[in-house]
Known about the structure:
The protein has one domain. Helices cover 75% and strands 0% of the residues. It has helices spanning 13-26, 28-69, 84-113, 121-151, 155-165, 167-174, 178-189, 193-228, 239-251, 257-274, 277-285.
Amino acid sequence: MQPKVELAKIRDFGEIISDTFLFVRQNIKPLLKYFFIFCGIFVAGNIVSVSMFQSKRVNVMNNIGSGFINTNEYRPSPFSFLGVELLLLIIFGVLSMIALTLTFLSYIALYKEKGNQVPTTEEMWGYIKYYFLRVFGSSILLFILLFFSFLFCGIPFFYLSPIFALIFPIMVMENASFGYAFNRSFFLIKDNWWVTFGSLVVIWIIVQVCAMVVSIPTSLINVISVITAPQKGARAFSAPLAIIGAALQQLCQVFVVLPVTTLALCYFNLTESKDGTSLMDKINKLGTNTPNTDLPAEEY
């Protein structure tokens, strides 16, 4: 049997990627369980909002197509699908991503704290409700900073993205405030930016490929329907298929466990490189371990 992944250790680029898949494979059942327990309501809301948005978008496209066929009919604007559906899509999209990130980070933090043991539902809920508002507020601030950094030719955006990503594991693993986590992320990533950035980029590419593979069937059906019925034009797009495709894409959010795990391993790699906390813990424990027996304590 393969030994469990030791989280707190120094890793190179290849080890970060391979240990990401190894950790997820070893913990896939509890990770899926907590995904549905703590993220299910947000993912469900996201599916409903995306389905509403896609249905309205397809209807608008079909109406536009009809307008081109019969110029006497009213042709709606291509932006007619913007409205409440888009607002709900944004809200549930943000909430589901925060819930996903926090759930998987809480699992990893508790897993390490318990000595590579699966945490209970009560322990997970305690972490999630304690950090949710903190992570939510931090996400808004980081989004604003990244938005303005993107306006400056995009270079600051790519530089700051892996640094800001480290803020969330620092907050959860070290029970830190936003200000402390913000400063510490810059300290940790110094001289290790490329390893962190490269690991996150590679794992996100893998996640996007997986999501594309899942959505291929519905995309092919839509393409075939347009090819086989060219006289219908945009009207060949099917609202039910668009909704099914949107639902599949939202369920693919479970793949976020991969970049979150990679992010946590990058955090542990950086902390071990800078602080050597795991090594110091092992040194401090030398000579303090007592034999594990079933004998009662001696009484005098």
